[in-house]
Structures are given as C-alpha cells and as structure tokens.
Amino acid sequence: MRLNFHRFDLRLRHTFTISRSSRDVVPVVLVEFEKDGITAYGEASPNARYGETPESVAEFLSELDLDKLSDPFRLESINDYLDSLGGHNASARAAIDIAMHDWIGRKLAIPLYRFFGADRDRAPLSTFTIGIDTPEVVTRKVREAANYPVLKIKVGLANDEEIIKAVRDATDKPLRVDANEGWKSRDEALDRILWLEKQNVELIEQPMPASMIDDVRWLRERVHIPIVADEAVGSLFDIAELSTAYDGINIKIQKNGGLLKARKMVYTARAHGMKIMLGCMIESSVGITAAAQLSPLVDWADLDGNVLISNDPFTGARNEDGKLILSDSPGLGVAPAA
Ligand code: MG
User: Domain 2-110: which CATH class?
Assistant: First the structure.
C-alpha cells in the first residue's frame, strides 16, 4: 500500500475573475493510492476562501496514518479519521475520499455511479461559467460557449448590469447567476435580483455574504427565482438552518470534503425540501469526474472546472455541449492523459 501526491498547476484558458479574486493558474494536489495492485486517484483543489493552500494539503496528506486507509470499503471510519485530524482541510479530505471511492469502484469493477445506485441518463446538463470581465471579453466568451445550452455568469462587482447586457447581446439562452457574496446589503441584492429576473435568469447563487442568513431570508420573500447557498454551506449540519432562508444548496466535493459527505448532503437537503446544485472548483478531470458520478442525483450541475483549463493531466467524464458523459470504466473512470 502506498500514497503519493504532488502539486500540479492547472492553467486557465482565460483569466478567471469572480467577486473576490482573479487567477490564471490554479495549483491542485493530485493523489495516487495503490493497494493490492489497484491504483486509484484523487485530487485536492485548495481554496483560500476556506483557509487552504497547496502547502496545507501537502502537510495534511504527509501526516496521515496509512494503516487507517488499509480497507477503503470502510468509508465511514476513514472519513471519521480524516475529520478527527481537524483544521480547514476539506479539499485534502476530499482527495483521500475520492481515491478511496475510485479504489472501491475499480475493485468491484463498476463505475461509481452504479455503486451510488444512480442512473447516468438522469445527469442534468452542466452550465458553462463566464467569469467577470469587460463587456467585450464577456461577449466573446459567450460566443465561444455557443455549444453550451445553459451559462453561469459571475457577477458581484460594480459592473453587473453591463456584464449581463453584454451576455444578452450575444445570446438569449437561460442564465444562472452567481454573486459569490458580492452584494453587501439586502437592498442592493433585492434591486439586482429583481432586475435579473427580467433577463431570463433561472436562479441566483450566494447573493450576500455567507453570514447574512437573516438578510437572505428577507430577500427570499421578495424575489421570484430560487436562491442557492454556496459559500454558506460548510457541511451537512448547516442544511437545516439554511433551508429556512435558501431554496437550494450548492454541494462541492472539494468544499464539503468528499463524495461520502456529498451524498449525505444530497439526502439531507432533499429531506428539507431543497433543490441541489453540484458545483466545482477549478479542478482537473479527476475531481470533475468524481462529481459527475454523483450528478444524476441532483437538479443542477455546474461541473465545468476541467473545460476551463488548457493542461488537464487526466481524462475522464466528457463534457459534450454541456452534457456530462459517464463511461462504463470502473471507479471514477479517469486515466492519466497520454
Ligand atoms: Mg458559487
């Protein structure tokens, strides 16, 4: 049994700007776990918003007691062990949890969506994300995304209306809008959402800072499209309270600590009558394919992290014009790129 990991810098096709940051390169940590002649893969995409760096991931992974991973089928015990180590290490935990799942699927010789009891034909279309930019660049990106039937538009800085107008100059397809906590007062958020509703926007993600749950509850009574929590969703245990203010949650394998936790969140959110989006960070095909395996269980998919990069080190689930294609390959169904 062995566990190897290394940092890999994902290069973005376009500078990617959201309300709090702008990036050209995203460092991830790729994990390789081998046991009984089966090699399995995992990935951490650390996010500064959640207190993580490639270095903190490497430190977490280097301190693991490998004996605790000796039976990957014990997903519950392994997750308990990873949680017991403490700290802001959701993506590092996710990397191990993904590798354990990949190993199980390979051992059983079935793709993970079958292990989850999911029907791959029910996978929703994935959005393609357009980051914040000048109107000219936004229009160009929207034209380049012509094959994607639904777009996710990042807003939350001063030029929201300009961006949406630039998108609407190029297309009339449905939009989902993500403010990434960018609107700082409920009156500002209400104004923006009422305007967006007239622009064929289907839903709004994280309009205000995660801590402003009472303001979101106020907002929800005044708008007519679903409000989805993203940055506000740390774990399973946040869902009950969030269901009093939001219509849905955005689950991310990297943010929420892996596939086992994500599945529990799916069922918990359902029990609270919430809609579910499955989102991603900028990730290679390892992380995106892991999420894609769960996607038949959710309402909305936003799994485009691997199509935003130019140097994907793996192949996995294909994204054909927004449709996620899961193969019959066992486990995650990923392989190192040739
Ligand atoms: Mg989001």
Answer: alpha beta
